[in-house]
Structure formats: structure tokens, C-alpha cells
Design a protein that fits this description.
The longest helix has 17 residues. 41% of the residues lie in helices and 11% in strands. The strands form 2 sheets. The protein has a 4-stranded antiparallel β-sheet with strand order 1-2-3-4. It has a 3-stranded antiparallel β-sheet with strand order 5-7-6. With 331 residues, the chain is α+β, with helices and mostly antiparallel strands. It is built from 15 helices and 7 strands. Helix 2 packs antiparallel against helix 8 and helix 14 crosses helix 15.
Length: 331
């Protein structure tokens, strides 16, 4: 069985072609909204991180979402539009692919219950959109299966790419792009779920969420991870639900970077990539030796090297080798 892999297109070339295609659309009067991620963190605010954490908490998505992180970080989501119940995006790959994600609305009865439970816990729309409220309110809004965020059965994907996977890397990139967009426009979460955020404020009285004590109107650093049962990394962890701090205040955190790099260097994916670059090509046996993993565990990592553009496949079945991009394998 032969695999018909699309030819690898370098990131710089993809960006150049995407810029040209987007310029043509702009000339036709189309308003484009690319996703721009600064640094390693994809989302930096309470709502953006909560969206990403919710997606990552579902086992159906956990093994597929990582494919999209590289794409969204390198600017491949060249347009992303959020409207009631729909996310429409264009993602730059070997071509410009059209990706659509549809999300069911929050059922009316469920939304009314959420509003009732949060009654008296949110003082203003500004505080709501900034995530400046008690942990009890966030617990209620993020309650899986009964909160504001969608579950897998509420979401449908469609992509024009030839990948037959249920969730291709373009869809995964768009899902992360949605979280990044909520950083700057958190009101779009309510637009997507087709509910009115003002209704959370209009219900006076006492709900099941206790009123916060003085100084409690921010989320603790580990709250989002605890809500979704995750140990969040730098791309999804939250340190505060308050507005983003000025860059000058964030400088002390840079001292921790060497430790993070050392940790990442020890993971199997990093060891596999280093071995590929050193040897020029790998087969399954060499990959197992480099990572210490068995055949079943190492196979997804090899496929990820191809998906990320680090390697291409040569040969078939037992003769398959993964050749580093830019290297030629001698016959």
C-alpha cells in the first residue's frame, strides 16, 4: 500500500502564497481577521484559556489537538470569523483550506438555570468579559456538560483538505484559534453559543453561587486546570483572570525558561526529532531506540514529524523510512 503524501511546502512559502491569496480577497472587499499568536502561549486570558482547556479535557480530541498548535502558532489560520453557532476559517497548508465548525446553541432551559445559579455573582458586563468574578461563578459557567462551553456532541467539523481524519490539523488549529480570539473578543463566546451575556446580570437575588468575599474577584492560578481535570502547560495555563499585565511586570518569569527548555528536551518527541536531524532518516526500529517507546507509541510521533513538515515518507510497509526534509536518501 502506497501513501500519496502531498509535497511538503515550507512555512515561509505557505505564508507567501497565503498573503497573496488574502490580498486578492481583500481587494474584493472581504474583511479578513487572521489569528496572530505572540509567543508560546496560545491563549492568555481566562475565557481563552478556559475554551482551550475545555477542548483538551475530552479524550475524543486529546490526541488530535496537538497537531493544530504548530499551525496556529506559525500564523497558518489566515482568517477566522465567529458568528452565532458558526466558526468559518481559512487555513494555509499545501493550499488554502476552508474550515467550518458548527456549535449548537446552549439550550434555553440550561441557560436559564445557569443565569439563576449565577444570580448576584457578577456585578457588571465589564467584569464578566474580563473574567473578574469568584471561583464559584467560574465553576458554574465551566461545568462540563451543564455549563457554557460545548461538549463534543455539540460540535461538528468540516474542512476542504484531503485529510480523512475526523479532526484534521486545520480543524485543530481553528479550535485553538477560537481560544486566541476570545482573548481579545470574549463576547464572541456568547455569540457562538447564541446567548445574551446581559442576562447573567439581570437576575437579582441569590443563586447557588455564593457572593465573593472582598478581593476574591479574580481566578486563582490553578483554577482552570482543576475545573477541567487537567495539568495545564504554558499554552493553556492561567495565572490570573484580571486584564493582561504590562510587559514590564512579566519580565521576572523569564528566569524559569531554561528549566522549561530542559524539560522539553527530555520528552520523546524532542528526542525523536533530534535523532532524525542527526541521522538524516529513521525507520521504526531506530525511532524506538531513540525514544525508548514501543512500536505502537512511536508511530504517532513519526506521523507528527511528517505533519509538522520535519520529515517525509519514503518506501512502504516494513521498508518505510522517515527522511528529514532537505535530506536525500541514497538508494
Amino acid at each position: 500500500m502506497f501513501y500519496d503524501w502531498a509535497p511538503y511546502v515550507p512555512v515561509a512559502e505557505r505564508r507567501r502564497k497565503a498573503a497573496g491569496a488574502m490580498a486578492k480577497l481583500a481587494k474584493k472587499g472581504q474583511i479578513l481577521s487572521p489569528v496572530v499568536v505572540q509567543g508560546r502561549a496560545i491563549a492568555t486570558t481566562a475565557w481563552g484559556k478556559a475554551w482551550c482547556a475545555n477542548m483538551e479535557s475530552y479524550s475524543d480530541y486529546a490526541n488530535r489537538l496537538p497537531r493544530g498548535r504548530t499551525y496556529v502558532r506559525n500564523g497558518s489560520v489566515v482568517d477566522l470569523q465567529i458568528s452565532p453557532g458558526t466558526v468559518a476559517a481559512r487555513v494555509s497548508g499545501s493550499s488554502i483550506y476552508r474550515t467550518t465548525i458548527t456549535v449548537k446553541p446552549v439550550p434555553k432551559a440550561k441557560w436559564q438555570q445557569i443565569c439563576a445559579d449565577c444570580a448576584g455573582g457578577i456585578d457588571s458586563l465589564v467584569e464578566l468579559l474580563q473574567g473578574r468574578f469568584s471561583k464559584g461563578v467560574m465553576d458554574r459557567l465551566c461545568r462540563q456538560g451543564d455549563g457554557l462551553f460545548p461538549v463534543p456532541k455539540d460540535i461538528r467539523f468540516d474542512c476542504s483538505c484531503p485529510d480523512g481524519a475526523t479532526m484534521c490539523k486545520h480543524v485543530a488549529a481553528v479550535l485553538y484559534g477560537v481560544g486566541a480570539r476570545f482573548d481579545s473578543k470574549p463576547e464572541l463566546l456568547f455569540t457562538l453559543r447564541q446567548v445574551d451575556p446581559a442576562e447573567l446580570l439581570s437576575r437579582a437575588g441569590s443563586g447557588v453561587v455564593a457572593a465573593p468575599a472582598a478581593g476574591e474577584r479574580t481566578l486563582a492560578g490553578d483554577d482552570l486546570g482543576a475545573l477541567f481535570g487537567l495539568e495545564l502547560d504554558d499554552s493553556t495555563a492561567t495565572t490570573s483572570a484580571a486584564p493582561i499585565l504590562p510587559r514590564a511586570a512579566a519580565k521576572p518569569a523569564r528566569a524559569a525558561r531554561p528549566t522549561a527548555k530542559t524539560t522539553r528536551a527530555r520528552d520523546p518527541a524532542s528526542r525523536l526529532l533530534a535523532a532524525l536531524r542527526k541521522a538524516g532518516s529513521l525507520d521504526n526500529a531506530a525511532a524506538r531506540a531513540a525514544t525508548g517507546l514501543d512500536a505502537e507509541a512511536v508511530r504517532p510521533l513519526l506521523r507528527q514529524l511528517v505533519a509538522d513538515g520535519h520529515a517525509r515518507v519514503q518506501g512502504q510497509r516494513r521498508g518505510t523510512r522517515y527522511v528529514a526534509v532537505g535530506k536525500e536518501l541514497k538508494p
